[in-house]
Amino acid sequence: WLVILCSLSIAPFEVKFHLKTMGRLHNAGHFLAFSLTAFLLAWNSRTAFSRIFRCFVALLFALGLEYLEFFEYGHAYEWNDVLVDSTAIILVLLMLTIWSEVVPERTTAT
Questions:
Q1: Once rounded to an integer, what is the mean pLDDT over residues 94-109?
Q2: What is the dihedral of CA 61, 67, 70, 72, to 10 degrees?
Q3: For the chain, where are the alpha helices, taking DSSP H only?
Q4: What per-residue confidence (pLDDT) applies to 93?
Q5: CB atoms near residue 14 (< 10 Å)
Q6: Band of the pLDDT at 54, cuts 50, 70, 90?
Q7: 23/30 Cα distance (integer angstroms)
């Protein structure tokens, strides 16, 4: 998933245009992509620290991808994308934290 996300992020403008990753659904795409990223990284965390750390890694990944786009294509750093990505990651962190409190951890019988 991370390879696909990275490939889409640093793809040339023509590819992004052809795949329709820009326009009115751009923010929704970012939200969905980084919600999924945070979930995939943190869903099986056993501790709150682990969950927070893994979501922080997802945030660093988002920041890094925006920097790569800035560095590769020389356009302005898209802080709005980072805001959308961060919001998605924080909401997943909250959802997983609430889930971990509501659903008790299963233990295997020995």
A1: 78
A2: -80
A3: 2-9, 13-18, 26-42, 48-73, 79-102
A4: 96
A5: 8
A6: very high
A7: 12
Q: How far is CA 84 from CA 21, 39, 57, 103, 108, in A?
A: 15, 15, 16, 28, 39
pLDDT of residue 108: 56
What contacts 24+ positions apart, CB below 8 Å, involve 62-70?
62/34, 62/37, 62/86, 62/89, 65/5, 65/6, 65/9, 65/10, 68/6, 68/9, 68/10, 69/9, 69/10
Specify the length of the chain in residues.
110
Distances (CA, A) of 24 to 19, 28, 78: 13, 8, 16
Q: Pick from 57, 89, 61, 63: which is nearest to 77 by CA?
A: 63
The verdict on pTM exceeding 0.90 is no
The Cα–Cα gap between 60 and 81 comes to 13
For residue 109, what pLDDT band results from cuts at 50, 70 and 90?
low
Q: The tokens 């820009």 sit on which residue? A: 22
For residue 51, give the nearest of 95, 83, 16, 17 by alpha carbon: 95
